[in-house]
Structures are given as structure tokens and as C-alpha cells.
Amino acid sequence: MNKRVGVWGAVALFLGCGLFPPAWSATALRLHPPDNQQLNFSALSAIVYEETGIRLEPDPSFADGDDPVDSLLDGSAELAIVENTRAFEPGLRSILPLYQSVVHIAVRKGLSIADFAGSERSLKLQIYHNSHTARMVLDLLFERASELPDRYELWQPGNPGNPDLLFYVGPINPHNTTWFPEGFTLVPLSRFDAAGAEFYIDGISFLVPQLRSTRIPALTYSLPGNEVGIDALAVDMLLVANKSTDQSAIYELTRVLMEQKPRFAAVEPTLFRWMGADFNARDLTFPLHRGARQYFDRDEPGFLERYAESLNFLVYLVVLMFTGAVAFGRWRARRRKDRIDGFYVRVRNLRRAAGFDDPKRLLSELEKIEDEAFTGLINERLAADDSFRIFTELAEGLRGELQSHIADDHATEPNQSVP
Prior knowledge:
Blueprint: H1 2-16, E1 27-32, H2 41-52, E2 54-58, H3 68-73, E3 79-83, E4 92-108, E5 123-127, H4 132-144, E6 152-154, E7 165-170, E8 184-186, H5 197-207, E9 211-216, E10 230-242, H6 247-259, H7 261-267, H8 269-272, H9 290-296, H10 303-306, H11 308-352, H12 359-378, H13 386-417
Parallel strand pairs: 1-2, 1-3, 5-6, 5-7
Antiparallel strand pairs: 3-10, 4-7, 4-8, 4-10, 9-10
Helix pairs in contact: 1-2, 2-6, 6-9, 11-12, 11-13, 12-13
Pfam families: NMT1_3 (PF16868)
Transmembrane segments: 313-331
Protein name: TAXI family TRAP transporter solute-binding subunit
């Protein structure tokens, strides 16, 4: 542990000296690394800094053995590498799967599970670095394997005795076997559940979507048990960020990881050679960070391009409706004008008959025309516009003339009655 912290401190000093000119103003991101995998962090960080100007610094809480998820949540780190089997946390977002780790299982040589049947002795299990994936596989194994005893105890370094069974979750790396103790042998899961051998190969992803079957090829490790191929389970190791981490910094970090993959694979071929953008985001425990999603969707058509045909149809429909509304309005106005013209004709005919016909009858006809016109106005069959105003003025003028004729007739009636 102290050796790793020293390396991380040297890396931070190395990057802080400015040996590589940043492409723009530098951003510092604190990374909580996986404590079970020895990464060549100095070389990886140098590539990131050279391409983006982002300084990767070690999370100070790493030396205290803090959980990487807790470091993200309490703000001591902006980035962490965690197993995809971790429980969902609202404040965390995925960037991308970096590499895959494999569940390595080793048993003490000469161990017989039958020795624990009917015995008060518990099976001692060691889980390296408190791996959540190892705990998940352990629970699954004890649930399915009838040969295993009913109880077990977790063994930690410093506890009395030695473990009987150990779980190590890490990438397949024949150059890193410091976790493997003397007197043990590698075994597949079917070692304890022979009846479920096919399940661990073909059916595990249906029960636990975050896990998938893999195989450690024969002679990969110079370790007992690997003389033959070993069926195992794999889990993605996610690069995870706090939700509040700067979006542009995550975009640039995602870009350099994707575009400089050959350089990363050259430094850590066992880790980064399979890294790519062809993963399914729905299989990740944490949703994608906005910066990462922006990078992966950079070539996707925009909103206007994606819905161009629909928008064209909507615009056409709006124009069509507007044109129809304008045409309807004009038709209605013309119809109102035609109605008011009819009233003009009727009033004009009354005026022509004013000097010959009975003025009282003509006045009665005029009032009927006015009543009809105002009823049409109330029912919105006529508009209160200039045409209607002209009609009212015309009718009012005719009313005055007729009333004048009626008054004149009343004035002459007494004189006609004198003998």
C-alpha cells in the first residue's frame, strides 16, 4: 500500500512540473484508483496531460483505504474506477468501461469440502480488497452449490490460521500474481457446483446482467490449476465521475481515452486493448455523465436533422392552416359585404319611392330593414365596419326625409277639410 502511494505522489509531482505543455488551461482531477490493480499511472497520466492539459492527481483518501464510491460522494475525488456490480448512487455518473476484471478462485491444496460436513468448523474465505463482485459470486455460489457447507467466515490477514478459499477480482495478467499464495490452486466455479457448470457459462448474464462468462486460457498463469483452461466470470471496471464534475473536462477525458487507445493499450495491453465505444449504456450501473454522452453522441444527427421531415410537414400544415384561415376570413368578410349591399339596394329603392308612395308605409319598411340589419349585426352575420356605418347614415337620411313628408301631409290635412 505505501509503495503505491509513493508512486502516486511521484506521479503528481511529475505532472505538476509541466514537462508537457497543456493544450489549454489545465484542470486537475483527483482519481481514486483501484486498490487491487497495479496501473502504470505515470505513463497513462502523461498521455492524458499531453493531449488535454488535464492533470490527474491521486485522491488523498486512497492512502486511508477509503472506498472509491465514498470518495466520490464526499468530494475527495472526482474520478474513480469501480466494479460495475456496485449499487446505484444518485450522485455518480459513468464515463465508460475501461477494462474487465475476472473473478479468480483459488482453493487450498488438499481441501476436501466433505471434511466440513457435520463439523463445527467454518469454511474460511478471503476476499481480496472487499470486492463487491466477489461477494456477489460468493452468495450465488453458496445459494446454488449443495456441496458447500452451510456456514463460512470471512478471513482477514492477521486472523489466526489460513484461508481455505480465496477470491481475487482483477484483470487477467500473468505478470501480476502477488495475490496468489503458496499452497493453493486455481479452480473454476464448477469445482463446487458441477451441476451448474453450463449455467455459469450460458445463463449467468440472465440472473446477474453485470456479469458475463469468460475463460482463462490454459497456461496463461504459471500457477497450479491453469494447466487447463478455467471457466470464470468477468465484470466491467467503470471509470466513474461525480455528477457535478465539469462537463467539458469529462468530454476531453473521454475523447483522449477513445482517440488515443493505441497509446494506452501499448502501456497496459492487458487492460485497454478491448476498450471501445461499442458498449451498451443500459448495462452500466450508473448512467452516462453528460460530458461522456456529449462525446459519444457527437456524430449523431441534431434535433433539426433528426426530425427534419416531421418539421417540414408541420411547417407545411401551419402554412396551409394559416392560408385557409386567411381565405375563410376573406370569404366571410365578402359575404358580410354582400349582405350589407343588399340592405343598400333596399334602402335606395325606398328612397326612389319616397316622392310617390305613402311615406308612413315607407318608414315602416325602413324600420323593418333596420331591425333586420341590427339583428344580423348581433348574430355576427354583419360586421360593424365602415360599410355598416354608411348603411346607418343612409337609413338615417331617408328616415329624415320620410318624417319630413309625413309632417308636411299632417300640415295640409286641416286646410283640405274646410268647405
